[in-house]
């Protein structure tokens, strides 16, 4: 692939639960033909917490270019971004205006500390969303993360107008729930 590595980002999701502990998946090294991920346990101050016996956990992942905007024939739009994010909220404006709040997928792509941290989205609308990174509260009460982390964001939503690219995609829109 003839794309600068600095423009690539990844989104991944654990597919198994082989170990009874909280694990956060981070994309820590992105290349044009491979991605290295790290599993981070809660407030990982003990090196033994990082030991995951074989066969480990399974995960699914995608790799794509940042600053991408695709308008699909199916009235869908895909946008991608990469930001340095801290525990202070920052607003992200979309290129498109979506019919409804779009689906957001995000992943921390660095390991700026030993604490477990995830991207959080709120105040989501059809034109923008606020994001920050937040730590868990398992071993300490505060959730503010020291420093910044690189976060990749994939936005997928309905725009109500047809684009020129055939994406062969379907988007099912559901209201979020608090429990499964």
Instruction: Give the biggest sheet.
Output: 4 strands, antiparallel
Q: Mean of the pLDDT scores?
A: 81
Using the CA coordinates, give the radius of gyration: 17 Å
Coarse morphology: globular
Which consecutive residue ranges, at least 5 long each, have pLDDT under 50?
A: none
Q: How far apart are the termini?
A: 40 Å
Proportion of residues in helical segments: under 10%
Give the strand content. 35-45%
Number of helices: 0
Structure, explained:
With 180 residues, this protein is an all-beta fold. Helix content is 0%, strand content 42%. It is built from no helices and 11 strands. The strands form 4 sheets. It has a 4-stranded antiparallel β-sheet, with no helix packed on it. A hairpin with a 4-residue loop joins strand 5 and strand 6. The relative contact order is 0.24. The mean pLDDT is 81.
Descriptive keywords:
42% strand, mainly beta, four-stranded antiparallel beta sheet, three-stranded antiparallel beta sheet, globular, 180 residues, single chain
Topology, pairings included?
Elements: E1 8-14, E2 23-30, E3 35-41, E4 59-65, E5 69-71, E6 76-85, E7 90-93, E8 103-108, E9 117-122, E10 128-135, E11 149-158
Antiparallel strand pairs: 1-4, 2-3, 5-6, 6-11, 7-10, 8-11, 9-10
Quickly describe the structure.
With 180 residues, the chain is mainly β.
């Amino acid at each position: 692939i003839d794309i600068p590595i600095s423009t690539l980002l990844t989104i991944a999701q654990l597919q198994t639960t082989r170990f009874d502990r909280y694990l956060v998946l981070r994309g820590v090294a992105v290349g044009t033909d491979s991605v290295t991920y790290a599993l981070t346990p809660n407030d990982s101050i003990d090196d033994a917490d990082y030991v995951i016996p074989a066969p480990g956990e399974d995960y699914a992942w995608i790799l794509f270019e940042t600053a991408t905007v695709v308008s699909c024939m199916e009235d869908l739009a895909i946008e991608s971004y990469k930001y340095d994010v801290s525990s202070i909220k920052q607003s992200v404006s979309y290129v498109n205006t979506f019919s409804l709040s779009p689906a957001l997928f995000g992943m921390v792509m660095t390991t700026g500390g030993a604490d477990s941290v995830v991207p959080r989205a709120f105040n989501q609308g059809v034109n923008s969303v606020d994001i920050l990174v937040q730590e868990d509260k398992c071993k300490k009460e505060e959730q503010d993360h020291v420093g910044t982390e690189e976060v990749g964001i994939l936005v997928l939503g309905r725009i109500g107008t047809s684009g020129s690219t055939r994406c062969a995609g379907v988007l099912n829109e559901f209201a979020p729930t608090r429990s499964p």
